[in-house]
UniProtKB/TrEMBL annotation:
Keywords: DNA integration, DNA recombination, DNA-binding. It comes from the Bacteria. Residues 102-184 form the Core-binding (CB) domain. It comes from Halomonas korlensis. This is Integrase. Residues 208-382 form the Tyr recombinase domain. InterPro entries: CB (IPR044068), DNA_brk_join_enz (IPR011010), Integrase-like_cat_sf (IPR013762), Integrase_catalytic (IPR002104), Integrase_DNA-bd_sf (IPR038488), Integrase_DNA_bind_dom (IPR025166), Integrase_recombinase_N (IPR010998), Phage_int_M (IPR053876). Residues 396-416 are annotated as: Disordered. Belongs to the 'phage' integrase family. GO terms for biological process: DNA integration; DNA recombination. GO terms for molecular function: DNA binding.
Amino acid sequence: MKRTAIKRRPLADTVLQTLEPEAKEYRESYGVDRLYLVVSTTGRKRWEVRYKKPATDRWAWMGIGGYPDTTAKRARQEAQRIAELVADGIDPVEFRRGAQVHPFKEVIEAWYQDKVDKGRAEKTLKGIRYWRDNDALPALGSKPIDKITRGDCAKLQAAIEERGAYNTAEKSRTWLNQIFGRAIAMGHTENNPASNLTDIAAHPPKEQRYPHLVEKDLPEFLRALADSPSKMIVRTAAWMVVRTASRPGMVRWAEWDEIEGDVWRVPGQKMKMRRDHVVPLPRQVLENLKALRPMTGRSRYLFPGEGAKSPVISDMAINTAFSRIGYRGRMTGHGSRHTAKTLLSEHGWPAQWTEAQLAHTPKGMEGIYNQAAYLENRRRMMQWYSDYLDALAGGTTDGDSSPVPGVSNETAAPTL
């Protein structure tokens, strides 16, 4: 039978049996599964499958047996198995040779699970998942780990930078190096193609510090916040951020069980540096929480959100509260930490106390960090700070920001 006489596909057994040779060897599509029957010039027939090599994304051929020894049914089954291997990022030819293939998506999942098992913060894991699903897997997921090139990694980085996500690009470099480092240790590959990505990284625009206020700007801001139209829950959270210089995310996720007397004990899993932290609560914050308890005391959280999908107020709630009183772009929740640090320093409070309050670990002290560092000193400092804010709002201070003489680690804190 001449192949020009073929009327339909998939090819029937009678067609397979009677196809005639030609002057040159040719392939005839079986009709499904990228399966082809090859007919040689001598009339011998064999099956081949066309597939894309995961490592290069180029088309290739793979022989799967002669005909009629390998029936059409068996050839289709083998073609489907090859398609499944390719979908998993495995080159079927290398698989046949017995080479152990580890697709990138398999390696990244193992790396991610290691992060989960080590107790990384949910916020960190969420960021990793977003990068994994939207950047890494679409670019590299189907490729065997040992076939990924420096060019592949460079393209991934460039794609992230092109959308202006320079912080994500920096994290991507870190995570890729961890993934390939782990793969090398596991014997899945011998090289790390992400090792020099920093050398070709784009320079991000100059980073803008969190907008914050200096002392002379505080009286008007504090009076406006006191008259804020925001709901009580958000307003109380905003005041807690301002008066304690705590990270907004910490405050949003604060739990009633963490409040013990006049201190707030934040467990390490909520902290950026994964260490327990103790925050002394000024009298004004305690009064606010006392007023808040009848409203949210039955909730796990001080500042619950609305609905099951929002256990706490949103990450924009506090900044929105500041925006509603006219301080959009001038003051943020995180900026209040800069404000506190600056004001306390200008009034002579020791850096060790302010750094401990901000949950910062000075260089050289990482190994001896104490969750209750300078607690009594910080208690007096933050009560002074909260009282001073009230004085600024009430106009009962001249706003002199000169340091108070005689203050050191050992001396008493300044009083209003």
